[in-house]
Here is the input.
Amino acid sequence: MKELSVDRLKAVLRYEPETGLFFWVNPPKNHPRLNEYVAGGISTGYVMIKVDGQKYKAHRLAWLYMHGAWPEMDIDHANGSPLDNRIANLRLATNPQNQANRRRDHGKDTPKGVRRLPRGSYQARITIDHKQICLGTFDTEDQAQAAYLAASQDHYKDFARAA
Here is the structure.
């Protein structure tokens, strides 16, 4: 399949960098009433837009639209919201940086980077270069979280996320 070009993208969609929204300027032939409507829908937590029969994540299209080339790395949503596709919220990231900025999975009863041990203590862990590193065992959840946050901020800098 031919890769979507920036020229083709701009021929069918208009992007507003301040809002992060795309609008149809040349909608698909079978949906002419979509002209000037917001493009895309939410799927798997991301805004997805179908162009020429192919689905794309809106944040990747925003990067292409604004920079004229497909991103060579992951695109990270700085504020952690995958629905916020304002160009000011998008930044290039390595996969580990992108993962460091992920929110804690729902349904977990401990903070990110912390696990409860069977005897009531807490262990702080971080993954760096695909290796899980134990940061220590602590009496309280707060102590373990503080250890994780310090290590995360030290290693991942602006990509570190607490929760």
About this structure: The CA atoms of residues 11 and 128 lie 42 Å apart.
